[in-house]
Every structure is written in structure tokens, then in C-alpha cells.
Design goal:
Elements lengths: L2 H7 L13 H12 L10 E6 L2 H10 L8 E8 L5 E2 L2 E2 L1 H18 L3 E2 L7 H7 L6 E10 L17 H4 L4
Antiparallel strand pairs: 1-2, 2-6, 3-4, 5-6
Helix pairs in contact: 1-4, 2-4, 3-5
The structure holds flavin mononucleotide (FMN).
The site of flavin mononucleotide (FMN) has 12 residues, from loops.
């Protein structure tokens, strides 16, 4: 798919079919995350592919937003590897870039997805037994849109360029 098409086709999916990604699809998506840029190239990221019944049950216990996806990426930041300066650290930014790369690659190969922040951090850390070094940043349910999936209500609502940009 052309890049212009990918960025327009990506749309939050809030109802998935039972389609399970094959290894080739998963590898391609993860590779897009692997090559994402990060501050100082520190790559302070860990990706968990949640697809076992047990892991998916845990996701449901900590978030109402799996939307039936049979696989969910859990993207965590590695606190001890992140670039830090007097201005703070880049953990969330590094993770966000990695996650966005993966979402766009997923869209590129026909895999629907959505970014989820609505989860209980404490419960998630406990459920997955994450050590103190890991900061959960987002969940990305992935799969194929169910036929009766709702349209993403805010997908076409974007600020006008005039409001967004100031040329100085
Ligand atoms: C940082 C971030 C957090 C989000 N968290 C949630 C969430 O917890 N639950 C949800 O249903 N959608 C969530 N979304 C999806 C947004 O609501 C959606 O991207 C936005 O409404 C624009 O729609 P579109 O993605 O279809 O263009 C999140 C998106 C982002 C980027």
C-alpha cells in the first residue's frame, strides 16, 4: 500500500473478529517496531504479544478495551535503558514511536488495530508480574475488524490546518 493510503486507512477498530494473526504477519509488524527510532538509539522498549487464553484474560481484567481482539501487543518502556536529561526522559515518546510504527505496518498489511491507554496500571503490573523496571505504556489490540464493527466516531474529526500550524 502507498504510505499516503496507509495513514488514511488506519482507523481505530473497536470490534474484532476471531482472526488470529499468523507468524509472518506478526513478524512484519514487530519488525516495524524494531526499526523505529528512539532517543540516542537506546531502544528502551519491550513488547509482549498477548495471545494465550491466560494472557487475554488478564488484559480483560485490567482494561475494558480489548474489543474481542485475539491478540494484543503490550508495549512497555525499560526505565533503566531510557535516555534521560535535565528535561526528563523519553520513555513514553520512544514507546509511542515504536507503537505507531507497528500500527501503521499492521494497517499496511490489512491488520486492524487501536491504541489503548485505558487500563489500570497497577492491576496490569500485578497481573503480568512486571518488574519495577518496566513501565506499561499502551495496549494495541490487533486483528481483523468484525463485519459489524462500529465506525470510529472521531476518525474524521481533525483540526483544520490553520489551527494546527503556524508558519513563523
Ligand atoms: C494515546 C491514545 C490513547 C487512546 N486510548 C484509547 C482507549 O483507551 N480506548 C479507546 O477505545 N480508544 C483509545 N484511543 C483511540 C482514540 O480514541 C482514536 O484514535 C481517536 O478517537 C481518533 O480516531 P481514529 O484512530 O479512528 O482516527 C487512544 C488513542 C491514542 C492515540
Amino acid at each position: 500500500m502507498l504510505f499516503d493510503e496507509v495513514i488514511r486507512k488506519r482507523e481505530a477498530c473497536r470490534k474484532f473478529s476471531d482472526y488470529k494473526l499468523n507468524d509472518e504477519e506478526l513478524d512484519k509488524i514487530i519488525e516495524a517496531g524494531r526499526i523505529a527510532p528512539s532517543a540516542k538509539n537506546n531502544q528502551p522498549i519491550k513488547i509482549f504479544v498477548c495471545r494465550s487464553e491466560e494472557a487475554l484474560k488478564k488484559i480483560d481484567e485490567v482494561s475494558p478495551c480489548r474489543y474481542g481482539a485475539p491478540q494484543v501487543l503490550l508495549i512497555c518502556g525499560l526505565k533503566d535503558q531510557v535516555y534521560k536529561s535535565n528535561e526528563g526522559d523519553t520513555l513514553d515518546v520512544d514507546c509511542a514511536i515504536c507503537a505507531t510504527h507497528m500500527m501503521l505496518e499492521a494497517t499496511n498489511i490489512g491488520i486492524d488495530n487501536i491504541w489503548i491507554r485505558m487500563f489500570d496500571d497497577k492491576k496490569l503490573i500485578e497481573a503480568f508480574n512486571l518488574d519495577d523496571n518496566l513501565k506499561p505504556v499502551c495496549l494495541i489490540p490487533m486483528g481483523k475488524r468484525s463485519e459489524d464493527a462500529p465506525i470510529s466516531p472521531k476518525h474524521n474529526i481533525r483540526k483544520d490546518k490553520k489551527e494546527l500550524v503556524e508558519y513563523i
